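Collaboration report, partner site 2.

Our partner group contributed sequences for two proteins of shared interest, and the home lab folded both. The records are reproduced in the order in which they were received, starting with the first partner submission.
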Amino acid sequence: MSGDWNIGHIPYKRAILMPEKTAIIFEDSPVTYRNLNDGINRAAHMLEKKGIKKGDRVAVLMLNCVEFLEVYFACAKIGAILVPLNWRLVGPELEYQLIDSGTRLIVFHDSFLGSIDLIRGRLKVERDKFIFLKSGSVLPPGFKSPACPDWAEDYHDLIQGQPITEPFMEKPVELSDPLAIIYTSGTTGNPKGAVVSHLQTYFKNFQVNVYIDGTQDDIIIAQMPLFHSGGLFIVATPALCSGMTMVMRRGFDPNEFAEDIQRYKGTIVFALTTMWRLILDTGKLDQTEVSSVRCVVGGGERTPPSLFEELAKRGLHMQQGFGQTENSAMMLVPKEDIQRKMGS
Protein backbone atom coordinates (compact mmCIF):
# COMPACT_ATOMS: atom_id res chain seq x y z
CA MET A 1 0.00 0.00 0.00
CA SER A 2 1.17 3.51 -0.78
CA GLY A 3 0.76 6.74 1.13
CA ASP A 4 0.54 7.68 4.76
CA TRP A 5 -1.40 5.70 7.33
CA ASN A 6 -5.13 5.60 6.60
CA ILE A 7 -8.16 3.55 7.70
CA GLY A 8 -7.46 1.03 4.91
CA HIS A 9 -4.30 0.00 6.77
CA ILE A 10 -6.35 -1.53 9.62
CA PRO A 11 -7.24 -4.85 7.91
CA TYR A 12 -3.87 -4.88 6.09
CA LYS A 13 -1.91 -4.69 9.35
CA ARG A 14 -4.14 -7.18 11.17
CA ALA A 15 -3.78 -9.66 8.29
CA ILE A 16 0.00 -9.47 8.78
CA LEU A 17 0.00 -9.56 12.59
CA MET A 18 -2.71 -12.20 13.18
CA PRO A 19 -3.81 -13.76 9.86
CA GLU A 20 -5.59 -16.77 11.39
CA LYS A 21 -7.32 -14.88 14.21
CA THR A 22 -11.11 -14.68 13.79
CA ALA A 23 -12.03 -11.11 12.88
CA ILE A 24 -15.77 -11.55 12.43
CA ILE A 25 -18.31 -14.21 13.27
CA PHE A 26 -21.13 -13.42 10.84
CA GLU A 27 -24.31 -15.43 11.33
CA ASP A 28 -22.20 -18.05 13.15
CA SER A 29 -19.60 -18.34 10.33
CA PRO A 30 -16.05 -17.21 11.23
CA VAL A 31 -13.94 -14.98 8.97
CA THR A 32 -10.22 -14.61 9.68
CA TYR A 33 -8.31 -11.36 9.38
CA ARG A 34 -6.47 -12.83 6.37
CA ASN A 35 -9.71 -13.74 4.61
CA LEU A 36 -11.25 -10.37 5.45
CA ASN A 37 -8.30 -8.48 3.97
CA ASP A 38 -8.27 -10.71 0.87
CA GLY A 39 -11.95 -9.91 0.28
CA ILE A 40 -11.31 -6.20 0.80
CA ASN A 41 -8.50 -6.23 -1.76
CA ARG A 42 -10.65 -8.06 -4.32
CA ALA A 43 -13.35 -5.43 -3.80
CA ALA A 44 -10.77 -2.62 -4.16
CA HIS A 45 -9.49 -4.01 -7.48
CA MET A 46 -13.08 -4.47 -8.68
CA LEU A 47 -13.90 -0.83 -7.87
CA GLU A 48 -10.79 0.33 -9.70
CA LYS A 49 -11.75 -1.74 -12.77
CA LYS A 50 -15.14 -0.02 -12.63
CA GLY A 51 -13.32 3.30 -12.97
CA ILE A 52 -13.69 4.39 -9.35
CA LYS A 53 -10.93 6.82 -8.42
CA LYS A 54 -9.84 8.72 -5.34
CA GLY A 55 -12.60 11.11 -4.28
CA ASP A 56 -15.44 9.21 -6.03
CA ARG A 57 -18.49 8.36 -3.94
CA VAL A 58 -19.55 4.73 -3.50
CA ALA A 59 -22.94 4.12 -1.86
CA VAL A 60 -24.01 0.98 -0.01
CA LEU A 61 -27.63 0.03 0.69
CA MET A 62 -27.11 -3.18 2.61
CA LEU A 63 -28.01 -5.08 5.74
CA ASN A 64 -25.07 -5.95 7.99
CA CYS A 65 -22.73 -8.38 6.23
CA VAL A 66 -19.05 -9.04 5.62
CA GLU A 67 -19.34 -7.53 2.11
CA PHE A 68 -20.41 -4.19 3.64
CA LEU A 69 -17.07 -4.09 5.47
CA GLU A 70 -15.23 -5.25 2.34
CA VAL A 71 -16.59 -2.28 0.37
CA TYR A 72 -15.97 0.13 3.28
CA PHE A 73 -12.30 -0.77 3.71
CA ALA A 74 -11.82 -1.11 -0.07
CA CYS A 75 -12.99 2.49 -0.45
CA ALA A 76 -10.61 3.52 2.33
CA LYS A 77 -7.67 1.83 0.57
CA ILE A 78 -8.28 3.50 -2.82
CA GLY A 79 -9.44 6.86 -1.47
CA ALA A 80 -13.08 6.54 -2.55
CA ILE A 81 -15.70 8.01 -0.20
CA LEU A 82 -18.28 5.62 1.28
CA VAL A 83 -21.93 6.75 1.42
CA PRO A 84 -23.79 4.35 3.78
CA LEU A 85 -27.54 4.56 3.20
CA ASN A 86 -30.16 3.94 5.85
CA TRP A 87 -32.18 0.97 4.56
CA ARG A 88 -35.29 2.30 6.31
CA LEU A 89 -35.48 5.15 3.79
CA VAL A 90 -38.04 5.18 0.98
CA GLY A 91 -37.40 5.94 -2.71
CA PRO A 92 -37.46 9.77 -2.75
CA GLU A 93 -35.24 9.96 0.37
CA LEU A 94 -32.69 7.57 -1.15
CA GLU A 95 -32.82 9.48 -4.43
CA TYR A 96 -32.07 12.77 -2.67
CA GLN A 97 -29.05 11.40 -0.79
CA LEU A 98 -27.62 9.58 -3.82
CA ILE A 99 -27.88 12.69 -6.01
CA ASP A 100 -26.78 15.11 -3.28
CA SER A 101 -23.68 13.03 -2.48
CA GLY A 102 -22.70 12.67 -6.14
CA THR A 103 -22.65 8.87 -5.90
CA ARG A 104 -21.01 7.16 -8.92
CA LEU A 105 -21.52 3.51 -7.92
CA ILE A 106 -23.98 1.73 -5.65
CA VAL A 107 -23.86 -1.73 -4.05
CA PHE A 108 -27.27 -2.92 -2.85
CA HIS A 109 -28.87 -6.01 -1.32
CA ASP A 110 -31.67 -7.91 -3.06
CA SER A 111 -34.00 -6.74 -0.24
CA PHE A 112 -33.82 -3.21 -1.66
CA LEU A 113 -34.01 -4.06 -5.37
CA GLY A 114 -37.47 -2.48 -5.70
CA SER A 115 -36.37 0.81 -4.12
CA ILE A 116 -33.35 1.15 -6.43
CA ASP A 117 -35.29 0.08 -9.55
CA LEU A 118 -37.84 2.81 -8.83
CA ILE A 119 -35.27 5.62 -8.83
CA ARG A 120 -32.33 4.37 -10.93
CA GLY A 121 -33.36 6.30 -14.06
CA ARG A 122 -33.04 9.58 -12.19
CA LEU A 123 -29.62 8.88 -10.63
CA LYS A 124 -26.22 9.98 -11.92
CA VAL A 125 -25.01 6.38 -11.71
CA GLU A 126 -23.77 4.85 -14.97
CA ARG A 127 -25.35 1.62 -16.18
CA ASP A 128 -22.33 -0.54 -15.28
CA LYS A 129 -22.16 0.78 -11.73
CA PHE A 130 -25.23 -0.86 -10.15
CA ILE A 131 -23.96 -3.84 -8.15
CA PHE A 132 -26.37 -6.42 -6.74
CA LEU A 133 -25.80 -8.74 -3.80
CA LYS A 134 -27.94 -11.47 -2.23
CA SER A 135 -28.51 -10.78 1.47
CA GLY A 136 -29.15 -14.37 2.52
CA SER A 137 -32.12 -13.22 4.61
CA VAL A 138 -34.58 -15.93 5.61
CA LEU A 139 -37.82 -15.39 3.69
CA PRO A 140 -41.34 -16.58 4.58
CA PRO A 141 -42.47 -19.88 3.00
CA GLY A 142 -43.36 -19.46 -0.67
CA PHE A 143 -41.20 -16.38 -1.17
CA LYS A 144 -38.04 -16.39 -3.30
CA SER A 145 -35.27 -13.81 -3.17
CA PRO A 146 -35.03 -11.87 -6.45
CA ALA A 147 -32.31 -12.64 -8.97
CA CYS A 148 -29.82 -10.06 -10.22
CA PRO A 149 -31.68 -7.83 -12.74
CA ASP A 150 -30.33 -7.24 -16.24
CA TRP A 151 -29.49 -3.62 -15.39
CA ALA A 152 -27.09 -4.62 -12.56
CA GLU A 153 -24.12 -6.96 -12.02
CA ASP A 154 -23.60 -9.51 -9.26
CA TYR A 155 -21.03 -8.54 -6.61
CA HIS A 156 -19.54 -12.01 -6.21
CA ASP A 157 -19.24 -12.51 -9.99
CA LEU A 158 -17.35 -9.21 -10.19
CA ILE A 159 -14.86 -9.92 -7.39
CA GLN A 160 -14.22 -13.52 -8.44
CA GLY A 161 -10.73 -13.77 -9.87
CA GLN A 162 -9.68 -10.32 -8.70
CA PRO A 163 -6.19 -10.24 -7.14
CA ILE A 164 -5.72 -10.28 -3.36
CA THR A 165 -2.68 -8.00 -3.58
CA GLU A 166 -2.81 -4.58 -1.96
CA PRO A 167 -4.02 -1.91 -4.39
CA PHE A 168 -1.38 0.64 -5.40
CA MET A 169 -2.43 4.28 -5.45
CA GLU A 170 -0.70 6.87 -7.64
CA LYS A 171 -2.28 9.56 -5.45
CA PRO A 172 -1.68 8.44 -1.84
CA VAL A 173 -4.64 8.26 0.55
CA GLU A 174 -3.84 10.50 3.50
CA LEU A 175 -5.35 10.99 6.94
CA SER A 176 -6.74 14.37 5.95
CA ASP A 177 -8.80 12.82 3.11
CA PRO A 178 -12.56 12.21 3.48
CA LEU A 179 -13.52 8.64 4.38
CA ALA A 180 -17.33 8.70 4.36
CA ILE A 181 -20.39 10.89 3.97
CA ILE A 182 -23.10 9.97 6.48
CA TYR A 183 -26.47 11.69 6.31
CA THR A 184 -27.93 13.16 9.48
CA SER A 185 -31.34 14.73 9.92
CA GLY A 186 -31.22 18.39 10.82
CA THR A 187 -33.98 20.31 12.56
CA THR A 188 -35.05 21.87 9.25
CA GLY A 189 -34.80 20.98 5.58
CA ASN A 190 -33.26 17.90 4.01
CA PRO A 191 -30.72 15.65 5.78
CA LYS A 192 -27.16 16.96 5.73
CA GLY A 193 -24.23 14.90 4.53
CA ALA A 194 -21.65 14.84 7.33
CA VAL A 195 -18.12 14.34 5.96
CA VAL A 196 -16.03 12.05 8.17
CA SER A 197 -12.27 11.98 7.56
CA HIS A 198 -9.68 9.21 7.94
CA LEU A 199 -8.00 11.35 10.63
CA GLN A 200 -11.15 11.77 12.71
CA THR A 201 -11.87 8.04 12.50
CA TYR A 202 -8.23 7.23 13.35
CA PHE A 203 -8.47 9.17 16.63
CA LYS A 204 -11.96 7.85 17.41
CA ASN A 205 -10.53 4.31 17.26
CA PHE A 206 -8.14 5.16 20.04
CA GLN A 207 -10.75 7.13 21.98
CA VAL A 208 -13.22 4.22 21.95
CA ASN A 209 -10.57 1.63 22.80
CA VAL A 210 -9.28 3.76 25.69
CA TYR A 211 -12.84 4.10 27.02
CA ILE A 212 -13.55 0.37 26.91
CA ASP A 213 -9.96 -0.81 27.40
CA GLY A 214 -10.31 -2.83 24.20
CA THR A 215 -7.72 -5.51 23.33
CA GLN A 216 -7.31 -8.35 20.85
CA ASP A 217 -8.60 -10.77 23.50
CA ASP A 218 -12.05 -9.17 23.49
CA ILE A 219 -15.18 -10.57 21.86
CA ILE A 220 -17.67 -7.83 21.11
CA ILE A 221 -21.40 -8.51 20.76
CA ALA A 222 -23.21 -5.74 18.91
CA GLN A 223 -26.06 -5.75 16.40
CA MET A 224 -25.94 -2.09 15.45
CA PRO A 225 -26.60 -1.36 11.76
CA LEU A 226 -23.38 -0.62 9.89
CA PHE A 227 -25.02 2.24 7.97
CA HIS A 228 -25.14 4.13 11.29
CA SER A 229 -22.10 5.97 12.65
CA GLY A 230 -22.47 3.95 15.88
CA GLY A 231 -22.26 0.59 14.14
CA LEU A 232 -19.48 1.57 11.74
CA PHE A 233 -17.30 3.99 13.73
CA ILE A 234 -17.97 3.13 17.39
CA VAL A 235 -18.20 -0.66 17.05
CA ALA A 236 -16.77 -2.16 13.84
CA THR A 237 -13.77 0.04 13.08
CA PRO A 238 -12.33 0.22 16.65
CA ALA A 239 -13.03 -3.51 17.19
CA LEU A 240 -11.10 -4.53 14.07
CA CYS A 241 -8.39 -1.93 14.71
CA SER A 242 -7.64 -3.48 18.10
CA GLY A 243 -7.81 -7.07 16.78
CA MET A 244 -11.03 -8.09 18.55
CA THR A 245 -13.45 -10.73 17.33
CA MET A 246 -16.75 -9.10 16.38
CA VAL A 247 -19.98 -11.12 16.45
CA MET A 248 -22.26 -9.75 13.74
CA ARG A 249 -25.80 -10.46 12.56
CA ARG A 250 -27.75 -9.14 9.55
CA GLY A 251 -30.03 -7.25 11.89
CA PHE A 252 -31.05 -6.92 15.52
CA ASP A 253 -32.95 -9.71 17.23
CA PRO A 254 -33.27 -9.40 21.05
CA ASN A 255 -33.40 -13.16 21.68
CA GLU A 256 -30.35 -13.81 19.51
CA PHE A 257 -28.46 -10.96 21.14
CA ALA A 258 -28.86 -12.49 24.61
CA GLU A 259 -28.01 -15.97 23.31
CA ASP A 260 -24.86 -14.69 21.57
CA ILE A 261 -23.49 -13.33 24.85
CA GLN A 262 -23.44 -16.85 26.28
CA ARG A 263 -22.68 -18.70 23.02
CA TYR A 264 -19.55 -16.66 22.26
CA LYS A 265 -18.61 -15.62 25.83
CA GLY A 266 -18.84 -11.94 24.92
CA THR A 267 -16.60 -9.61 26.91
CA ILE A 268 -18.00 -6.32 25.54
CA VAL A 269 -21.69 -5.86 24.74
CA PHE A 270 -23.06 -2.81 22.98
CA ALA A 271 -26.75 -1.94 22.53
CA LEU A 272 -28.74 1.30 22.50
CA THR A 273 -31.27 1.97 25.26
CA THR A 274 -34.24 0.94 23.07
CA MET A 275 -32.44 -2.31 22.21
CA TRP A 276 -31.74 -3.06 25.87
CA ARG A 277 -35.44 -2.57 26.65
CA LEU A 278 -36.37 -5.14 24.00
CA ILE A 279 -33.69 -7.56 25.24
CA LEU A 280 -34.99 -7.30 28.81
CA ASP A 281 -38.58 -7.78 27.63
CA THR A 282 -37.74 -11.19 26.15
CA GLY A 283 -36.72 -12.52 29.59
CA LYS A 284 -33.77 -14.26 27.88
CA LEU A 285 -31.18 -12.55 30.07
CA ASP A 286 -32.55 -14.43 33.07
CA GLN A 287 -31.47 -17.71 31.44
CA THR A 288 -28.21 -16.33 30.03
CA GLU A 289 -24.71 -16.77 31.50
CA VAL A 290 -23.17 -13.28 31.40
CA SER A 291 -20.12 -13.78 33.66
CA SER A 292 -17.77 -13.27 30.67
CA VAL A 293 -18.96 -9.68 30.20
CA ARG A 294 -16.66 -6.99 31.57
CA CYS A 295 -17.98 -3.93 29.71
CA VAL A 296 -21.55 -2.92 28.83
CA VAL A 297 -22.13 0.11 26.62
CA GLY A 298 -25.48 1.75 25.95
CA GLY A 299 -27.16 5.09 25.45
CA GLY A 300 -28.34 6.83 22.33
CA GLU A 301 -31.21 8.43 24.22
CA ARG A 302 -32.10 9.43 27.77
CA THR A 303 -32.00 6.26 29.84
CA PRO A 304 -34.25 5.84 32.93
CA PRO A 305 -32.60 4.70 36.20
CA SER A 306 -34.89 1.63 36.16
CA LEU A 307 -33.09 0.27 33.07
CA PHE A 308 -29.67 0.57 34.73
CA GLU A 309 -31.09 -1.20 37.79
CA GLU A 310 -32.69 -4.02 35.76
CA LEU A 311 -29.39 -4.68 33.98
CA ALA A 312 -27.37 -4.42 37.20
CA LYS A 313 -29.58 -7.11 38.82
CA ARG A 314 -28.31 -9.43 36.08
CA GLY A 315 -24.67 -8.45 36.57
CA LEU A 316 -24.55 -6.01 33.64
CA HIS A 317 -23.39 -2.51 34.62
CA MET A 318 -24.15 -0.22 31.71
CA GLN A 319 -21.88 2.71 30.89
CA GLN A 320 -23.93 5.30 29.08
CA GLY A 321 -22.38 6.82 25.97
CA PHE A 322 -23.09 9.91 23.90
CA GLY A 323 -22.29 10.58 20.28
CA GLN A 324 -23.27 12.44 17.12
CA THR A 325 -23.31 11.36 13.49
CA GLU A 326 -20.76 14.08 12.69
CA ASN A 327 -18.38 12.93 15.43
CA SER A 328 -19.37 9.32 16.20
CA ALA A 329 -18.18 8.61 19.78
CA MET A 330 -18.08 11.64 22.08
CA MET A 331 -17.95 10.37 25.66
CA LEU A 332 -18.64 7.39 27.91
CA VAL A 333 -19.52 7.47 31.59
CA PRO A 334 -16.73 5.73 33.59
CA LYS A 335 -17.77 2.63 35.54
CA GLU A 336 -17.21 4.34 38.88
CA ASP A 337 -19.67 7.12 37.90
CA ILE A 338 -22.57 4.96 36.68
CA GLN A 339 -24.52 5.44 39.92
CA ARG A 340 -23.66 9.12 40.36
CA LYS A 341 -24.64 10.09 36.79
CA MET A 342 -27.66 7.78 36.48
CA GLY A 343 -30.50 9.43 34.54
CA SER A 344 -28.09 11.92 32.94
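Second partner submission, folded after the first:
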Amino acid sequence: RGPSVEHAVHHSVSDRIAERGREHPERTALIDGAGEHNYRTLNARANRLGHVLRKAVSEPNGLVAVCLDRSLDLVCALLGCWRAGLGYVPLDPGYPAGRIEMILEDAGAPLVLTSRALADRTPDRVRRVFIEDLAAELAAQPETEPVVLNAPSDVAYVIFTSGSTGRPKGVVIQQGAFENFIVSMQREPGFGATDRLLAITTISFDIAGLELFLPLASGGSLVLATREQSGDPRELQA
Protein backbone atom coordinates (compact mmCIF):
# COMPACT_ATOMS: atom_id res chain seq x y z
CA ARG A 1 0.00 0.00 0.00
CA GLY A 2 1.37 3.41 -0.95
CA PRO A 3 1.33 6.66 1.02
CA SER A 4 -2.00 8.35 1.74
CA VAL A 5 -2.99 11.96 2.32
CA GLU A 6 -5.96 13.16 4.38
CA HIS A 7 -8.65 14.60 2.13
CA ALA A 8 -11.78 14.84 4.22
CA VAL A 9 -13.89 17.49 2.49
CA HIS A 10 -15.42 16.83 -0.90
CA HIS A 11 -15.02 19.89 -3.12
CA SER A 12 -15.84 18.97 -6.70
CA VAL A 13 -13.66 19.92 -9.66
CA SER A 14 -16.53 22.05 -10.94
CA ASP A 15 -16.61 23.97 -7.65
CA ARG A 16 -12.85 24.46 -7.75
CA ILE A 17 -13.07 25.99 -11.22
CA ALA A 18 -15.88 28.29 -10.08
CA GLU A 19 -13.71 29.39 -7.14
CA ARG A 20 -10.79 30.21 -9.41
CA GLY A 21 -13.18 32.35 -11.45
CA ARG A 22 -14.30 34.29 -8.39
CA GLU A 23 -10.70 34.83 -7.30
CA HIS A 24 -9.27 35.89 -10.67
CA PRO A 25 -12.11 36.55 -13.16
CA GLU A 26 -9.88 38.32 -15.70
CA ARG A 27 -7.09 35.74 -15.72
CA THR A 28 -6.76 33.73 -18.94
CA ALA A 29 -8.49 30.39 -18.49
CA LEU A 30 -8.45 28.99 -22.02
CA ILE A 31 -6.74 29.65 -25.34
CA ASP A 32 -8.26 28.11 -28.48
CA GLY A 33 -8.40 28.88 -32.19
CA ALA A 34 -10.63 31.89 -31.52
CA GLY A 35 -8.24 33.51 -29.04
CA GLU A 36 -8.02 33.92 -25.26
CA HIS A 37 -10.96 33.53 -22.87
CA ASN A 38 -10.88 34.55 -19.21
CA TYR A 39 -12.36 32.76 -16.22
CA ARG A 40 -15.34 35.10 -16.11
CA THR A 41 -16.32 34.15 -19.68
CA LEU A 42 -15.69 30.43 -19.13
CA ASN A 43 -17.75 30.20 -15.94
CA ALA A 44 -20.60 32.39 -17.18
CA ARG A 45 -21.08 30.30 -20.35
CA ALA A 46 -20.78 27.02 -18.43
CA ASN A 47 -23.37 28.24 -15.92
CA ARG A 48 -25.80 29.28 -18.64
CA LEU A 49 -25.40 25.90 -20.32
CA GLY A 50 -25.93 24.28 -16.93
CA HIS A 51 -29.31 26.00 -16.54
CA VAL A 52 -30.38 24.90 -20.03
CA LEU A 53 -29.23 21.30 -19.56
CA ARG A 54 -30.88 21.04 -16.17
CA LYS A 55 -34.22 21.81 -17.81
CA ALA A 56 -33.55 19.49 -20.74
CA VAL A 57 -32.57 16.40 -18.69
CA SER A 58 -34.88 15.93 -15.74
CA GLU A 59 -33.26 12.76 -14.39
CA PRO A 60 -30.96 13.62 -11.43
CA ASN A 61 -27.35 12.59 -12.13
CA GLY A 62 -28.34 11.70 -15.70
CA LEU A 63 -26.07 11.74 -18.73
CA VAL A 64 -25.52 14.07 -21.68
CA ALA A 65 -23.47 12.96 -24.69
CA VAL A 66 -21.21 15.73 -26.00
CA CYS A 67 -19.93 15.78 -29.59
CA LEU A 68 -18.20 19.10 -30.30
CA ASP A 69 -14.99 20.33 -31.87
CA ARG A 70 -12.10 21.36 -29.63
CA SER A 71 -13.03 24.90 -28.59
CA LEU A 72 -14.33 26.97 -25.69
CA ASP A 73 -17.79 25.50 -26.31
CA LEU A 74 -16.51 21.96 -25.74
CA VAL A 75 -15.04 22.77 -22.33
CA CYS A 76 -18.09 24.83 -21.33
CA ALA A 77 -20.39 21.98 -22.39
CA LEU A 78 -18.56 19.43 -20.22
CA LEU A 79 -18.42 21.84 -17.31
CA GLY A 80 -22.06 22.81 -17.92
CA CYS A 81 -23.09 19.18 -17.45
CA TRP A 82 -21.53 19.21 -13.99
CA ARG A 83 -23.14 22.55 -13.17
CA ALA A 84 -26.49 20.93 -14.04
CA GLY A 85 -25.81 17.95 -11.77
CA LEU A 86 -25.25 15.64 -14.75
CA GLY A 87 -22.46 13.46 -16.06
CA TYR A 88 -21.17 13.57 -19.63
CA VAL A 89 -20.34 10.98 -22.29
CA PRO A 90 -17.54 12.34 -24.51
CA LEU A 91 -17.83 11.63 -28.25
CA ASP A 92 -14.87 12.34 -30.52
CA PRO A 93 -16.26 13.69 -33.84
CA GLY A 94 -13.40 11.94 -35.63
CA TYR A 95 -14.49 8.49 -34.50
CA PRO A 96 -16.20 6.12 -36.98
CA ALA A 97 -19.97 6.54 -37.09
CA GLY A 98 -20.45 2.93 -35.98
CA ARG A 99 -18.44 3.44 -32.80
CA ILE A 100 -20.31 6.65 -31.95
CA GLU A 101 -23.64 4.89 -32.47
CA MET A 102 -22.54 1.96 -30.29
CA ILE A 103 -21.50 4.32 -27.47
CA LEU A 104 -24.83 6.16 -27.64
CA GLU A 105 -26.74 2.88 -27.57
CA ASP A 106 -24.83 1.53 -24.56
CA ALA A 107 -24.72 4.78 -22.57
CA GLY A 108 -28.41 5.51 -23.02
CA ALA A 109 -27.86 9.26 -22.78
CA PRO A 110 -31.21 10.98 -23.48
CA LEU A 111 -29.60 13.95 -25.24
CA VAL A 112 -26.62 14.73 -27.49
CA LEU A 113 -25.18 18.23 -27.37
CA THR A 114 -23.47 18.88 -30.70
CA SER A 115 -23.16 21.42 -33.52
CA ARG A 116 -24.73 21.68 -36.96
CA ALA A 117 -21.30 21.30 -38.54
CA LEU A 118 -21.10 17.84 -36.92
CA ALA A 119 -24.72 16.81 -37.53
CA ASP A 120 -23.65 13.87 -39.69
CA ARG A 121 -21.58 12.39 -36.87
CA THR A 122 -24.60 11.35 -34.76
CA PRO A 123 -27.69 9.39 -35.85
CA ASP A 124 -30.99 11.20 -36.54
CA ARG A 125 -32.87 8.89 -34.17
CA VAL A 126 -31.23 10.39 -31.06
CA ARG A 127 -32.38 13.64 -29.49
CA ARG A 128 -29.85 16.23 -30.63
CA VAL A 129 -29.46 19.79 -29.40
CA PHE A 130 -27.34 22.02 -31.62
CA ILE A 131 -25.36 24.54 -29.65
CA GLU A 132 -25.82 27.24 -32.31
CA ASP A 133 -29.59 27.03 -31.83
CA LEU A 134 -29.25 27.79 -28.11
CA ALA A 135 -27.99 31.36 -28.53
CA ALA A 136 -31.22 33.10 -27.52
CA GLU A 137 -31.99 30.65 -24.71
CA LEU A 138 -28.47 30.92 -23.30
CA ALA A 139 -28.62 34.72 -23.36
CA ALA A 140 -31.78 34.56 -21.24
CA GLN A 141 -30.15 32.42 -18.53
CA PRO A 142 -28.42 33.85 -15.44
CA GLU A 143 -24.63 33.81 -15.23
CA THR A 144 -24.83 32.43 -11.71
CA GLU A 145 -24.34 28.73 -11.00
CA PRO A 146 -27.38 26.46 -10.79
CA VAL A 147 -27.99 25.35 -7.22
CA VAL A 148 -26.72 21.79 -7.58
CA LEU A 149 -24.55 19.72 -5.24
CA ASN A 150 -22.24 17.18 -6.86
CA ALA A 151 -21.91 14.31 -4.37
CA PRO A 152 -18.75 12.16 -4.41
CA SER A 153 -20.76 9.18 -5.69
CA ASP A 154 -22.34 11.14 -8.58
CA VAL A 155 -21.21 10.44 -12.14
CA ALA A 156 -18.58 12.81 -13.52
CA TYR A 157 -18.35 11.08 -16.89
CA VAL A 158 -18.60 7.73 -18.63
CA ILE A 159 -15.59 6.78 -20.74
CA PHE A 160 -15.57 3.87 -23.19
CA THR A 161 -12.65 1.46 -23.55
CA SER A 162 -10.87 0.97 -26.85
CA GLY A 163 -12.51 -2.38 -27.52
CA SER A 164 -9.19 -4.09 -28.28
CA THR A 165 -10.30 -7.10 -26.21
CA GLY A 166 -13.89 -7.15 -27.46
CA ARG A 167 -16.87 -4.80 -27.48
CA PRO A 168 -15.99 -1.42 -25.89
CA LYS A 169 -17.30 -1.04 -22.35
CA GLY A 170 -18.44 2.10 -20.55
CA VAL A 171 -16.58 2.88 -17.33
CA VAL A 172 -18.27 5.22 -14.83
CA ILE A 173 -15.94 7.77 -13.22
CA GLN A 174 -17.40 9.28 -10.06
CA GLN A 175 -17.07 12.90 -8.98
CA GLY A 176 -15.14 12.00 -5.85
CA ALA A 177 -12.64 9.82 -7.72
CA PHE A 178 -12.02 12.49 -10.35
CA GLU A 179 -11.60 15.19 -7.71
CA ASN A 180 -9.08 12.99 -5.87
CA PHE A 181 -7.13 12.52 -9.10
CA ILE A 182 -6.99 16.26 -9.87
CA VAL A 183 -6.00 17.20 -6.30
CA SER A 184 -3.23 14.56 -6.27
CA MET A 185 -1.84 15.84 -9.59
CA GLN A 186 -1.86 19.41 -8.26
CA ARG A 187 0.42 18.19 -5.46
CA GLU A 188 2.65 15.86 -7.46
CA PRO A 189 4.07 16.41 -10.02
CA GLY A 190 2.51 19.79 -9.24
CA PHE A 191 0.46 22.41 -11.07
CA GLY A 192 -0.20 26.01 -10.08
CA ALA A 193 -1.83 29.25 -11.16
CA THR A 194 1.21 30.38 -13.18
CA ASP A 195 1.33 27.17 -15.24
CA ARG A 196 -0.27 26.39 -18.59
CA LEU A 197 -0.97 23.04 -20.21
CA LEU A 198 -1.27 22.11 -23.88
CA ALA A 199 -4.22 19.74 -24.31
CA ILE A 200 -3.92 17.46 -27.33
CA THR A 201 -5.75 14.26 -26.35
CA THR A 202 -9.10 13.25 -27.81
CA ILE A 203 -11.90 13.75 -25.27
CA SER A 204 -12.83 10.09 -25.71
CA PHE A 205 -9.56 9.04 -24.06
CA ASP A 206 -9.49 9.14 -20.26
CA ILE A 207 -6.39 11.33 -19.83
CA ALA A 208 -8.29 14.19 -21.52
CA GLY A 209 -10.00 14.87 -18.18
CA LEU A 210 -6.61 15.67 -16.65
CA GLU A 211 -5.56 17.87 -19.56
CA LEU A 212 -8.77 19.90 -19.63
CA PHE A 213 -9.52 20.34 -15.95
CA LEU A 214 -6.20 20.29 -14.04
CA PRO A 215 -5.20 23.76 -15.28
CA LEU A 216 -8.68 25.22 -14.74
CA ALA A 217 -9.04 23.79 -11.22
CA SER A 218 -5.61 25.24 -10.41
CA GLY A 219 -6.24 28.74 -11.76
CA GLY A 220 -3.78 28.21 -14.60
CA SER A 221 -4.30 28.32 -18.36
CA LEU A 222 -5.48 25.63 -20.75
CA VAL A 223 -4.17 25.77 -24.33
CA LEU A 224 -6.59 23.71 -26.39
CA ALA A 225 -5.05 22.37 -29.59
CA THR A 226 -7.35 21.66 -32.52
CA ARG A 227 -7.54 18.21 -34.06
CA GLU A 228 -5.40 19.42 -36.94
CA GLN A 229 -2.76 20.90 -34.64
CA SER A 230 -2.67 17.76 -32.51
CA GLY A 231 -1.58 15.72 -35.52
CA ASP A 232 1.11 18.12 -36.74
CA PRO A 233 4.37 18.33 -34.72
CA ARG A 234 5.31 21.67 -36.30
CA GLU A 235 1.97 23.19 -35.30
CA LEU A 236 2.36 21.86 -31.75
CA GLN A 237 5.85 23.31 -31.47
CA ALA A 238 4.55 26.71 -32.62
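Feedback sent to the partner group on the second submission included the following. The mean pLDDT is 92. The two ends are 42 Å apart (CA to CA).
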